[in-house]
Fold this sequence. Notes:
The structure holds two protein chains of two kinds. By secondary structure, chain A is of the alpha/beta class. Chain A has helices spanning 2-15, 32-44, 60-64, 93-105, 109-117, 119-126, 128-144, 163-170, 172-177, 184-197, 211-226, 250-259, 266-295, 312-324; strands at residues 21-26, 49-54, 75-79, 85-90, 146-147, 150-151, 155-159, 201-207, 231-239, 300-304. The relative contact order of chain A is 0.18. Chain B is of the alpha/beta class. Chain B folds into two domains: 7-175 and 230-291 and 332-373, Rossmann fold, CATH 3.40.50.300; 297-331. Chain B has helices at residues 7-12, 29-42, 56-61, 92-103, 106-114, 116-124, 128-143, 161-174, 176-182, 184-187, 191-211, 213-226, 232-245, 259-274, 297-310, 314-341, 362-373, and strands at 18-22, 46-51, 72-73, 84-89, 148-152, 249-255, 279-287, 349-353. In chain B, strand 6, helix 14 and strand 7 form a beta-alpha-beta unit. At the A-B interface, helix 4, helix 5, helix 6, helix 7 and helix 11 of A face helix 6, helix 9, helix 11, helix 12 and helix 14 of B.
Amino acid sequence: xxxxxxxxxxxxxxxxxxxxxxxxxxxxxxGKTTVSAALAxxxxxxxxxxxxxxxxxxxxFAQLFDVSPLPYSDRKVAVAPRGGEVRALAVDAEQAxxxxxxxxxxxxxxxxALKKLGAIDFATTIAPGxxxxxxxxxxxxxxxxxxxxxRVYDAxxxxxxxxGRVGRFLNVTxxxxxxxxxxxxxxxxxGVMAVLRSPMTAVHLVTLLEEMPVQEVSDTIAELIDSGxxxxxxIVNAVRTPALAAKVTGPELRRGLAAAGLATDKETIRGLxxxxxxxxxxxxxxxxxxxxxxxxxxxxxELPFLPEGxxxxxxxxxxxxxxxxxxxxx
Amino acid sequence: MTNHLDIDALLNxxxxxxxxxxxxxxxxxxxxxxxxxxRAAEAGRRTVVLTIDPARRLAQSMGxxxxxxxxxxxKGVTAENxxxxxxxxxxxxxxxxxxxxAHTAADRAEEIFANPFYQAMSSSFSGTQEYMAMEKLGQLxxxxxxxxxxxxxxxxxxxxDFLDAPQRLSRFLDGRMLRLLLTxxxxxxxxxxxxxxxxxxxxxxxxxxxxxxQLLTDLSGFVAALxxxxxxxxxxxxxxxxxxxxSGTAFVVVAAPEPDAIREASYFAERLSQEQMxxxxxxxxxVHRTGVETLTADRSLAxxxxxxxxxxxxxxxxxxxxxxxxxNIEARERRIAAxxxxxxxxxxxxxxxxxxxxxxxxxxxxxxxxxxxxQG
Lengths: 330, 376
């Protein structure tokens, strides 16, 4: 048990990318938001400052950290282990467009009028790629932000769209290629792409040990490589530690239950046998999927299943797992 | 505890013509839709299932190897008394093309298909998938050849998108905004519109500066070619939307016992009741159930610790630990599900136990269907 754990730790610390921007994706329902939050906590550990960004308007971080809905500006949401802080930001495409227009064209009050008209929503609608360029642009700005000659954030963690949409979301230059060949949007998207494709960035894939999410991990890795985006690690979420030491049989259970002073009726034996055999099947499937993931040749990291559900305490527990695996900010 | 959703009564009722499976991503909507359709077919109904993005192996097992946007009969269905299962995967681009063709002359349609803006929009617009799923549903219903149509909904952030996105898209396509942007001079000059168009021309100038004139040229060509279709997008979307309100339609909300999925399910149930759309029930997927209800987690753990201390019966000890974990998981899932059941006590529920292995063939779908029909 211990040996296995130590091996895992060594593996991860060796392969953990020294990125500044961590983009977290995965199939819907695999726990991207939770993993992003735990990762931001781990990266902030020991006196660092990290920023968590969400782009889909879910307010998932506000719920996780139990704070009021996030505004369109960075706000401290948690204190990291051994000092350090995590801030969070919910990026909204409309606000980002207004901010952007203001930067280039000094809109002032006219911006508000445009918003009222629904014109902003309209603009991001007629040019679908525009929305993603604005969102990723804001992420890039946070990653490269400098104050008093020092980077504001040691690391930025982006809770990205799910695997089905992440390739398009990140491949911003391809998206705007048809929209703009010159002009500010073009240079903006080129700038964003340069950061996304640099070693400064790592795209992590969250999965459960279930067939579809695992399949999507390998599909997405191929897609990311095609777009020249740096693939980070594979994060296996909600892993249950195999509790079954040996195959259980009826007679063995009867003896054991009697020794423990529990009932040894037929229903109890039958029920426990069913539970064990279903679990045994599950473990076999999980081992096969784990092997498939290992073959992908990416640093792999397993996060424990939290039987009580993910609350604030659980989040720190997951962050500890990241820390123990050698995850740290550059 | 709660009332059970009688799946067989729903599936076998000849008045049930459409079942829409909704829910947030990753809860098993596609599997649920396919399992319901298979069960209905094997009970004797001529059924078609419209899937959006099935897992590869499930798609293969249903014979969905090519995307040709028409239903194909699924082999291996054991149906008596005339039941059949057909399945299709939505091709949103092709469906969009069909809509255009249905409303314009062939040469006009060619012009639209060649427009870069149309090409971008028909394959990557947010809302296009939802609109086209609705459109396809309307088409399938209009043929009148199906006893039952089961629809899977696109994987979106929110289950509500299925209801809202088509109208958003059709509003956009039919919209005044689109015309205003392209012909500000013609539309302006009167009262409020004057003010609107003043900021608008400023806006369109700004937009042109940012994204370049090319897009606006494409857009303008698109709008001109589409002129004969204005109104019809909204009308079609409205027709299908109204179809969803008829008594032949049943919504099934799919969720897993996780906080996010349950929250989405609650939003959706509220919305359906506001819209007076018929919610048949909640399908709670992947629930864990212990095999020994009488043995509590505490007693099970205490016994496991005792056995471990004695060093005897390690296999029994681990079985007991597993049991304790299962009991805790079950209790947690029930607490989460109660967030839905306590706010929507009238909504019937069907539960599907977590399968040890993933579902990717007809036998697996049959097991899920049987579990759905089983009364708790």
